[in-house]
Amino acid sequence: MAGSEFFLQGNISSEILLPLQQEILTAHDEWHVNVPFTLYISSQGGGVEEGLSMVSLIHAVRRSGRIFNTHIAGGAYSMGAIISQAGSHRSIDSYGFLMLHEQSMGVENDSLKKGDFKHHAAQLEATEKVLVDIVASRSGMDAETVRGRFFEGPDVYIGAVVALELGLVDEVLEDL
């Protein structure tokens, strides 16, 4: 059905997500709950808070009884990969990739005090726990495995077949 497909492409930011979220909510209000939605994701990642708001929206729509699938079209990196985990059914093209990595934080103030570092470190730990729990809950891996494999050390790029084996997607779509 036309209009039940949505596209998240580019950097995850309020400017990209707010219109998309409004489009999804409008469609959700206008269409019967039996009409499934699919979000196509092609994103290099972006803001954690903004991305978590998208995860929250997908969960809210799913709680209403609507099927809300996610599909990785090309690459879903960082928060794009986290958003992909929110789908009822998660698919990826055979040439697609996910990327997960240790969290980072930009700091605007050049003169930081010791207490500032502790505060930022605590913030990163809390955020990482949320992201780890999202991946663990969908993949079937325990949280410590997820943390050690994807959230410590360098960026981890995961091809489609390995993503399926790890429980990060439910289906790999083959080329025609």
Description:
- The protein contains 6 helices and 7 strands.
- It is an alpha/beta fold.
- It has one domain: Alpha-Beta Complex (2-enoyl-CoA Hydratase, Chain A, domain 1), CATH 3.90.226.10.
- Strands 1, 2, 3, 4, 5, 6 and 7 form a 7-stranded mixed sheet that branches.
- The model has no long low-confidence stretch (mean pLDDT 91).
Strand and helix order? EHEHEHEEHHEHE
**How much beta, percentage-wise?**
15-25%
- Gyration radius (Cα, Å) is 17 Å
Describe the sheet with the most strands: 7 strands, mixed
Please identify the top-level CATH class: Alpha Beta
Q: Considering the protein shown, what is the CATH homologous superfamily? A: 2-enoyl-CoA Hydratase, Chain A, domain 1
Tell me, rounded to a whole number, the average pLDDT: 91
Low-confidence stretches: none
Based on secondary structure, the structural category is alpha/beta
Straight-line N-to-C gap: 22 Å
Jot down its keywords.
single chain, 176 residues, alpha/beta, 2-enoyl-CoA Hydratase, Chain A, domain 1, seven-stranded mixed sheet, 6 helices, 7 strands
Write the topology of this structure.
Layout: E1 5-12, H1 14-30, E2 37-46, H2 48-63, E3 68-77, H3 79-84, E4 90-93, E5 97-100, H4 114-139, H5 143-150, E6 156-159, H6 160-165, E7 171-173
Parallel strand pairs: 1-2, 2-3, 3-4, 3-5, 4-7
Antiparallel strand pairs: 5-6
